[in-house]
Specification:
By secondary structure, the chain is an alpha+beta fold. It has one domain. A two-stranded parallel ribbon has the order 1-2. It is elongated and about 30 Å long.
């Protein structure tokens, strides 16, 4: 199984929804996807 990590940072929330959209497309293609907000993870 292919894996993908999507790391994003957002001030107003637009990047979060885009990251989730990208993750959904990748999941539909068979990827195991993890989406991480860089500002919340330390």
């Amino acid at each position: 199984m292919n894996k993908a990590l999507i790391v994003y940072g957002t001030r107003y929330g637009a990047a979060e929804s885009t990251a989730k959209d990208i993750a959904e497309v990748l999941q539909n293609e068979g990827f195991q996807v993890k989406v991480v907000n860089a500002k919340r993870k330390k």
